[in-house]
Amino acid sequence: MTAFPYKLIATDARTSARRGVLTTAHGEVHTPLFMPVGTRATVKGVQTDKLHELGAQVVLSNTYHLFLRPGPELIAEAGGLHTFMNWDRAILTDSGGFLIFSLADTLKLSEDGVEFRSIVDGSKHFWTPEENMRIQQLIGADIAMQLDQCTAYPEEKDVVRAAVKRSADWGKRCLVAHTRADQALFGIVQGGVFADLRHESIERIGELNFAGFGIGGYSVGEPHELMFETLPEVCAALPKDKPRYLMGVGNPTTILNAIAAGVDMFDCVLPTRTARMGTAFSSAGRMNMRNAQYIHDFGPLDPECSCDTCQHYSRSYIRHLVTTKEMLGAILLSQHNLHYLLDLTARARAAIEEGSYAAFLNDWNSSPAAHDY
Amino acid sequence: MTAFPYKLIATDARTSARRGVLTTAHGEVHTPLFMPVGTRATVKGVQTDKLHELGAQVVLSNTYHLFLRPGPELIAEAGGLHTFMNWDRAILTDSGGFLIFSLADTLKLSEDGVEFRSIVDGSKHFWTPEENMRIQQLIGADIAMQLDQCTAYPEEKDVVRAAVKRSADWGKRCLVAHTRADQALFGIVQGGVFADLRHESIERIGELNFAGFGIGGYSVGEPHELMFETLPEVCAALPKDKPRYLMGVGNPTTILNAIAAGVDMFDCVLPTRTARMGTAFSSAGRMNMRNAQYIHDFGPLDPECSCDTCQHYSRSYIRHLVTTKEMLGAILLSQHNLHYLLDLTARARAAIEEGSYAAFLNDWNSSPAAHDY
Question: Are the beta carbons of B74 and B83 closer than 8 angstroms?
Fold first, then answer.
């Protein structure tokens, strides 16, 4: 596939970190990168002009939620998701597979597809890989993901093995069904925490004509350390000339360590979801803005941060907004937390280009910012 | 009082509309104007950079709410409300009197002041006019309002008469207690729907050394027509060289008709509160964005509107946001509704300058936009 070329412009000598450029129908995407999540065609509380200013390159949206409301036909009628949500840079849609498995109480899985119930109105739906491709092509993101079967943690190995096979079979059907020339299609590697199943998954789909690969089935409840036991070899086994996207990871330290393992793309609701709960990311580690220690603190959230929130608002004011449940608290914290991850990944890109990523990561891991989120 | 001069730059020949400029410590304020309400030091869902872009000249904040949280001492410690909330244009604080009377289940009123309970934690507080001035001076708005007694509608005339006298007595004590040189102090006219009591109120305070006058006790439940039976003579009886502020009025048609009666300033939560409920102001009248008629409507909220929301987002998208309870729906509608009133009052100012206000008002009153909100 040459329609969506991925060009490596630097690789780190001492780690597996890569600095690349993926060409999409809505411009170049510089990796490694973090993608803010706009579940229902909106990054909660953040206008797209602010996302522009924050330097977001790709927004992720969720096929499951968009399928239920407002529906893919309506989005197509609006001129596609970019027009509908007023975002002129790249968009990625997940397939919805993960949400079906994690949200639906009752689902029926078969070789042919998955039957599930809507969380909105309880209505029944049946998705084949072909139907999922139809939906994602109507939505019109720049990058679509194959329909896959994501397994939980912990899970029996036989179940994970079956999911690896099924995901590969569905991936092949997605490739056949996918015809939209301005949309890249990524395959998804499964296999849970089992190294042999991860390799089997890559053997099944690694050589197929996908524009990139999602790495799914991590960050589903297992300790981060356990993920890192297999993530480096998963990356090493994937084709070098295609981007690798570790799905659902947004913890800053995990992102930086995964970049060192060879991951190129990340997404997570963590920065915006924790913002709505009053949490700020910072170079001194996680801050709970409900805490009384900030009542008389008129400094910025993070003295090292250059974001609009930190330039204009104090910890004291943000604590006031959070404790009085004012929308602006969630808005300002969401923008700050997104800036934090977007800036962090921009600095990671610069470090890889300069050949200093190992030192950059070492500094990070020994800093107070490396606390877990 | 010359510290906060109010200069009339145009008066309309056929109505009592006036075009003026009030000088405050944070710049000139061009009247007539609408002031967005930022109850707890934030206009709900709207960042101050957006308020700038929208052309807001004054933001109103509520002394009652700020007194409870975060407290006036904290705001003073932050450097005043402008610094605390990141707003560099003018601010007006109400005295909190209206909220005490409308929110508190139990309050004890005496000649000396008012005892009330906090809606936050039930704690008891006692405000004298002097204490209220101390609080408002700590908060540090450009315009403070005297503590007054606002009466409801309907109300016994004797009760309203007593409130007129008490408000005047408290106004005089506020004038004595108020010492902050960079803050203007407005008196408040009461009297309900009784013309003679309105005149009595103005006789008691109209010649006092206030920088302007609030007109309170309207828009408390009475029909708009009833207000207009006395509002013109209230305006006519007030000093010509001081601004007149009709408190709590935000209905577009009422604003324009009140301008014709001689009112200069307005505030109301209407544009932002209705926005959070999914209502858009428009040149075609009120729109309920939950309505199914907008599902496939890809036009702007108001084709005649130049706001950012109308330039970039469709009715269909906003309906999607409102029905899925996404914050962005309230944000975009709040900005649009504020723009609507700020633009409307800017056009009113231009019409007065051009000597065409009567025609402007006639056109409005015969347009679909004149529907009630």
Answer: no
Query: How many contacts does A have with B, using Cβ atoms within 8 A?
Result: 98
> β-strand A114-117 against A124-127: which pairing, if any?
antiparallel
- What ipTM does the predicted assembly reach? 0.97
Ordered DSSP codes for A317-336: HHHHHHHTT-HHHHHHHHHH
| Tokens of residue B361, six digits | 């008002």
Nearest-CA distance from B271 to chain A in Å? 16
- The alpha carbon of residue B237 is apart from the nearest alpha carbon of chain A, in Å, by 41
Q: Measure the CA–CA gap between A366 and A223, rounded to whole angstroms.
A: 20
Q: What is the pLDDT of residues B191-222, one digit of tens each?
A: 999 999 999 999 999 999 999 999 999 999 99
Give me the pLDDT at residue B1, please: 47
Q: Do B74 and A40 touch (CB under 8 A)?
A: no
Query: Is pLDDT above 50 for B262?
Result: yes
Is residue B146 within 8 Å of B94, Cβ to Cβ?
A: no
Supply the pLDDT for residue A100: 80
Coil vs helix vs strand at B205: helix
The first and second tokens of residue B115, run together, are 């005892």
The residues with which A31 forms a beta bridge, in sequence order, are A20
3-class DSSP assignment, residue A320: helix
Rg (CA), chain B: 20
Residues of A acting as catalytic residues: 94, 267
Collect all residues from A whose CB is shorter than 8 A from any CB in B.
Answer: 40-42, 44-49, 69-70, 74, 77-79, 84-86, 295-296, 298, 308, 312-314, 316-317, 320-321, 323-324, 326-328, 330-332
Minimal-distance CA residue of chain B relative to A308: B49
Report whether B31 contacts B21 (CB < 8 A). yes
- B124-157: b (≥16 Cβ within 10 Å) or e: ebebbbbbbbbbbbbbbbbbbbbbbbbbebebee
CA nearest to A38 within chain B: B326
Tell me the pTM.
0.97
Residue A167 in contact with residue A182, Cβ under 8 Å?
no
DSSP helix/strand/coil, A96? coil
d(CA B75, CA B85): 9
Q: Please state, in angstroms and rounded to a whole number, the distance separating the CA atoms of residues B210 and A246.
A: 65
Q: Contact at 8 Å (CB) between A333 and A319? A: no
pLDDT band at A1 (very low <50, low <70, confident <90, very high): very low
What's the helix, strand, coil split of chain A in %, to 5?
45, 20, 40
> Quick check: B175 and B140 in contact, CB under 8 A?
no
SS3 B6: strand
